[in-house]
Write a structure and sequence with these properties.
Elements: H1 8-11, H2 16-26, E1 37-44, E2 54-61, H3 66-72, E3 75-83, H4 86-96, E4 101-106, E5 110-117, H5 123-138, E6 169-171, E7 176-178, E8 190-191, H6 197-200, H7 208-221, H8 238-244, E9 248-249
Helix pairs in contact: 2-4, 4-5
């Protein structure tokens, strides 16, 4: 999988060494400790942050209330997003923003890695794009963690709904990720030309974000003439189409 065009400006800000690490990370499998949680960033109360000059601290947690984690570190929440792969997501954000990294003393106690931005950048936008990128990469290995619910602490530019893609399951006997067996139900096909956002999000391989892309595409270009036309929608290619084709009609 290549770096999406929308992320290339951020990708190219980094050194060659960091670029290699990002590309290498794409081929990694999720670890046993990776799963549903929140990736967040905060600014310090002690900083005089401005729009074009600010420090950001990155973190992750599986707590139901990420705000509590930030308060413990005397910070103000900057962004927070729920992820199916919080460990990978945090690592990708870390690397993409590495060009802005700086080590400094925090509260005169510990040295903590902060990201120091001195030029104007839409952090919310890029974090949302990185999140979508990570979900696409590791989609075959998604797992359910019922302890973590949909939270109000989400990115201001990337809202979540109560809709989530059918997740993969964990085989605890062998302690590894295994694909969920896809179930076919041809008795109630979903019409991709008329289905609602919520209905589209129930399709195998399609979550809220891709469902929204389908709706946006048909509003722009009109109805799909055949089910394979759905592959014209960005990020829906042969693999995703193979998962959903037995569930859709036009």
């Amino acid at each position: 999988m290549n770096i999406p065009a929308e992320l290339l400006p951020l990708f190219n800000k980094n050194t060659q060494e960091t670029k290699v690490k990002i590309l290498s990370l794409i081929t990694d499998f999720p670890s046993e400790t990776d799963g549903v949680g929140f990736v967040y960033a905060f600014k310090s109360d002690e900083d005089n942050n401005t729009k074009n000059n600010f420090y950001m601290k990155l973190g992750r947690t599986t707590r139901r209330n990420p705000e509590q984690r930030v308060l413990e570190q005397n910070g103000n929440m900057f962004f927070c997003q729920k992820s199916s792969f919080n460990k990978k997501f945090e690592r990708f954000v870390h690397l993409f923003f590495r060009y802005a990294r700086e080590i400094r003393v925090f509260n005169n106690k510990n040295e903590i890695e902060w990201f120091h931005f001195t030029t104007n950048i839409n952090v919310y936008k890029y974090v949302a794009l990185i999140h979508e990128f990570v979900e696409d990469i590791y989609e075959p290995y998604k797992v359910v963690d019922k302890r973590v619910k949909v939270s109000k602490y989400v990115s201001q530019t990337y809202k979540f709904d109560d809709i989530y893609e059918p997740y993969k399951v964990v085989d605890k006997k062998v302690n590894r990720y295994v694909p969920k067996v896809l179930k076919s139900d041809n008795s109630d096909l979903i019409n991709i030309n008329t289905a609602s956002l919520r209905e589209l999000a129930t399709l195998d391989g399609i979550a809220y974000k891709l469902a929204k892309r389908i709706v946006d595409y048909r509003e722009t270009y009109g109805d799909f003439e055949c089910i394979s036309d759905v592959m014209r929608v960005p990020y829906i290619k042969e693999i995703r189409f193979a998962k959903m084709k037995h569930q859709i009609t036009v």
